[in-house]
Amino acid sequence: MLKFNKAMVGAALTFMTTNMMANNTTDKDFNYVVDRFSDIEVLRYKVPGFEELSLNQKKLVYYLTEAAISGRDILWDQNGRYNLALRRLLENIYTGYSGDRRSDDFKAFEKYLKQVWFGNGVHHHYSMDKFTPEFSREFFDAQVKALPADKVPADIDVLARLIFDPSFMAKKVNQAEGADLIATSASNLYENVTQKEVEDYYAAIKDNTDQTPISYGLNARVAKVNGKVVEQTYKIGGLYSNAISRIVENLKMASAYAENDRQRAVINKLIEYYTTGDLKAFDDYSILWVGDADSQVDFINGFIESYDDPLGMTGNWESIVNFKNLDASHRTEVISGNAQWFENNSPVDPRFRKDKVKGVSAKVITAAILAGDAYPATPIGINLPNANWIRAAHGSKSVTIENITQAYDEASHGNGFNEEFVPDSSMRALMDDYLFITDNLHTDLHECLGHGSGRLLPGVDPDALKAHGSTLEEARADLFALYYLADPKLIELGLIDSPEAYKAQYYKYILNGLMTQLMRIEPGKDVEEAHMRNRKLIAEWALEKGAPEKVIELYTENGKTYIRINDYERLRQLFGQLLGEIQRIKSEGDYEAGRDLVEGYAVKVDPKLHREVLDRYSHLTIAPYRGFVNPVYRPVFDADKNEIVDVAVEYNEGYADQMLRYSRQYSTLSK
Ligand code: ZN
Asked: Is the pTM for the entire model greater than 0.90?
């Protein structure tokens, strides 16, 4: 599972701002924003710590990044059978164009190509809708005519229809109930089969008594060939053979530089899986991978998430190469190592505390490359493997990609959001200094301690809170984090250096819960999503309970609503009080009290305030979706040019430049 919904990331993190750098350098000269078009902003990210890796680790990372980019064409083809031909055509027109590059038609054409690059095909990565060209058919026809004959594809009529006919392959994935989901989806995971034929095919081969089932269909297209339904397996010698061969070549190079035997076994098992297509080998690989906790360098490379399969079986190809961020991982280890202290001092009834509590040690990583389904739009965390029985028997790896969240954060400087919603310049300065670190600490406390704290009274049904369970559970973990963010213990543990830092997080949390998160709700709708409900519950409850002492105030100036927090220490007490109550509700399974909290504070939106937030947000030019270009890794050779003596990392490549270079150097499935 991706840890966070890709689309939400842009919106959720736009608010964060910081000067806190993982490598303690100021960052004024680093240009995070690379490109902006349509509803997209393209950023770049830094790879702090890469220089400190050993030469062997750098070589390992280098070959794994090559293995990552080598799979690029696979996802393009999975996303639609004409995507690679379309990309080639558009790029030929783009690079060969001799007319005025500032003309409206060319600019519209360029925008369209940038959208297609971002979608890894002709559909939007999130909405799944086909892009709409804003250049004319005449312009397109003239450009095709101007191409050399050998660059005009044989299926030019189909490609023209793909671009200009809105009804043709309109949606990448159709999830609407009632229709044949395969027939009405444009993705290329099935060929010439009906939904029923696919379902019958798998029903016939699945063994439902198997306690350790393979992930059926994960690495195959299902097609009808000569009247027979068959799986076309993605493997060397099967579908996508050229791309997979090149991935495997680079994995073999990487294997030579593995940090230890276990990691080498992981890489070799993956090679075996790509060579045979055997899903049992993939399960063995996943078990080895989840058990490799010692290596600093890590990666995923394969057919992983199946959100884009209308039947939820076939995995989109993706790769992320990363290495452990030792400083940040130290932070979560310190928190987990002190789990019992936090439990013993929490503001809940001692009857509901755990006698023995164990913190979860979350790993923080630095991404070195993003590829396939993780590029350009990317998750900020990973939680794998997906097979339930492997998770149950062998556990899972859950990681946060901190250099990606940091890039989101840095890029949000100067987007106008803080100026619009935070009128007090000293609070804006405090946020600049401490929001990034307190956001990270909030996440650490929430994940490592919050969810694991507390206990049910004997005999209480863990599902007693029913539909409100997840909102209340998220609120409990958030309140645990909020309460402790203000605790001097964090300074004592060396996790933060200022007793004021928590105020930045408190202000942001209340502002978000009361107001700014409403920008993600459509007019007239209630708050539905559990995390959003939890934030609203906490903020609204604190506003109401603190009202007699004016702990939090909502006030208007020039027709705009703002918040003011008058008493931070009292606010902390209120958080502690609500934590105590929600823990009681959970420990006793008090459904009615839980329901009253959620329904009373978390669901209904004030339509006037909602309209105001949407209006103010619409005047800021914040892109709803964001993604990344990768750094460039350049091997440095010795004088004889046969041995790599270093790997340099460079951050100077633009968006179109990167896409065109990838097409030149890594077109494994298109000629
Ligand atoms: Zn949570």
From this structure: no
Return the residue matching tokens 């989109």. Answer: 316
Question: What integer pLDDT is reported at residue 127 of this predicted model?
Answer: 85
Measure the N-to-C terminal CA separation of the chain; round to a whole number of Å.
34
5: number of Cβ within 10 Å: 14
Give which of 239, 204, 203 is closest to 221, Cα–Cα.
239
Map tokens 């996303």 to a residue.
79
Distance 542 CA to ligand 1 centre (A): 20
CA 31, CA 554: separation in Å to the nearest integer? 36
What distance lies between CA 319 and its chain's CA centroid? Answer: 13
124 CA to centre of ligand 1 in angstroms: 29
Would you state the pLDDT for residue 174?
A: 83
HEC string of 520-575 equals HCCCCCCCCCHHHHHHHHHHHHHHHHCHHHCCEEEEEECCEEEEEECCHHHHHHHH
State the pLDDT at residue 360: 73
CA 607 – ligand 1 centroid, Å? 28
Bridge partner residues of 320 (DSSP): 300, 370
pLDDT digits (tens, 9 = 90+) for 583-638: 999 999 999 999 999 999 999 999 999 999 999 998 987 888 999 999 999 999 99
- Whole-number Å distance, alpha carbon 277 to ligand 1 midpoint, is 36
| Helix (H/G/I), strand (E/B), else coil: 241 | helix
Going from the Cα of 476 to the center of ligand 1, the distance in angstroms, rounded, reads: 9
* Cα distance between residue 309 and residue 182, in whole Å: 9
Instruction: Give the C-alpha separation, 537 to 529, whole Å.
Output: 12
Q: What three-state secondary structure class fits 650?
A: strand
The Å distance, Cα 579 to ligand 1 centre, comes to 14
Distance 421 CA to ligand 1 centre (A): 26
DSSP annotation of 171 reads B
Q: Separation of 340 CA from ligand 1 center, angstroms? A: 19
Find out whether 43 and 407 touch, Cβ atoms under 8 Å: yes
- The Å distance, Cα 276 to ligand 1 centre, comes to 39
pLDDT of residue 358: 78
474 alpha carbon – ligand 1 mean position (Å):
5
Q: What per-residue confidence (pLDDT) applies to 327?
A: 84
The CB-side HSE value for 123 (13 A sphere, CA atoms) comes to 26
Task: Give the DSSP H/E element, type plus range, for residue 104.
Answer: helix 104-119
* Alpha-carbon distances, residue 668 vs 10, 84, 242, 662 (angstroms): 31, 10, 6, 10
| Residues in a beta bridge with 370 | 320
Distance 530 CA to ligand 1 centre (A): 10
Tell me how far the alpha carbon of residue 477 lies from the centroid of ligand 1, in angstroms: 6
The alpha carbon of 381 and the centre of ligand 1 are apart by a number of angstroms equal to 13
Token pair in block for residue 496: 């933060």
Instruction: State the Cα–Cα distance between residues 528 and 138, nearest whole angstrom.
Output: 46
User: Of 520, 450, 442, which Cα lies nearest the Cα of 485?
Assistant: 442
**pLDDT value at residue 300:** 97
Backbone φ and ψ for 628, nearest 5 degrees, come out as: -135, 150
Q: What is the Å distance from ligand 1's center to 316 Cα?
A: 26
Distance 362 CA to ligand 1 centre (A): 13
Taking a C-beta distance cutoff of 8 angstroms, is the pair 280, 187 a contact?
Answer: no
Ion ligand 1: residues, Cβ under 5 Å? 474, 477
Residues contacting residue 333 through CB under 8 Å, at least 6 positions apart: 361
Q: What is the DSSP letter of 450?
A: I
Residue numbers in the chain where pLDDT is lower than 50: 1-26
Show the beta-strand stretches assigned E in 219-334.
220-225, 228-233, 297-305, 316-324
CA of 447 from ligand 1 middle (Å) equals 6
Give the neighbor-by-neighbor strand order of the sheet with 316-324: 297-305, 316-324, 363-372, 397-401, 381-384
DSSP 8-state class, residue 599: H
